[in-house]
UniProtKB/TrEMBL annotation:
The lineage of its organism: Bacteria, Pseudomonadati, Pseudomonadota, Alphaproteobacteria, Hyphomicrobiales. It comes from the Bacteria. Belongs to the flagella basal body rod proteins family. Residues 8-35 form the Flagellar basal body rod protein N-terminal domain. This is Flagellar basal-body rod protein FlgC. InterPro entries: Flag_bb_rod_N, Flg_bb/hook_C_dom, FlgC. One of its GO terms (biological process) is bacterial-type flagellum-dependent swarming motility. The keyword Nucleus does not apply. It is found in: Bacterial flagellum basal body. GO terms for cellular component: bacterial-type flagellum basal body, rod. The gene is flgC. The basal body constitutes a major portion of the flagellar organelle and consists of four rings (L,P,S, and M) mounted on a central rod. The rod consists of about 26 subunits of FlgG in the distal portion, and FlgB, FlgC and FlgF are thought to build up the proximal portion of the rod with about 6 subunits each. Its main location: other. Residues 90-134 form the Flagellar basal-body/hook protein C-terminal domain.
Length: 138
């Protein structure tokens, strides 16, 4: 298989994986304050993404795939909010285990990885186009 096509395949899989990662991070950020509806109920649990390398038999290249979307099992922090409908008898509310700073760092990393893969796609397309032009001029 053509190395440029293989590069496109690898970069394309990276784009898909990072796009899904950005979706999960966005979901986590959107639910960073989502508590349960009843006293003592669990709030939103942070989602995590795991990647896996997959061999593309057509190109012989190693691509990235989403292995799983899991849930962060760290403890829920408690906040004293006696007026909240999700507060227990002592006035404490279980808050989501989402750390906004970590999510923003994950978003930045995923965004940069997405941009890098997009640049690879652009470069490979340009090289393929240049190769076709060279073949036409012979």
């Amino acid at each position: 298989m053509d190395p440029l096509v293989a590069a496109l395949k690898v970069a394309g899989s990276g784009l898909g994986a990072q796009s899904e990662r950005l979706r999960i991070v966005s979901e986590n950020l959107a639910n960073a304050q989502s508590t349960g509806n009843t006293p003592g109920a669990d709030p939103y649990r942070r989602k995590t993404v795991s990647f896996a390398a997959e061999l593309d038999r057509a190109t012989g290249a190693s691509t990235v795939e989403i292995a799983s979307i899991g849930h962060d099992q760290t403890a829920f922090p408690l906040e004293f909010q006696p007026g909240n409908e999700a507060a227990d008898a002592a006035g404490f509310v279980k808050m989501p285990n989402v750390n906004v700073i970590i999510e923003m760092a994950d978003m930045t990393e995923a965004n940069r990885s997405y941009e890098a893969n997009l640049q690879v796609v652009k470069q490979a397309r340009e090289l393929i186009s240049m190769t076709i032009d060279l073949m036409r001029n012979q």
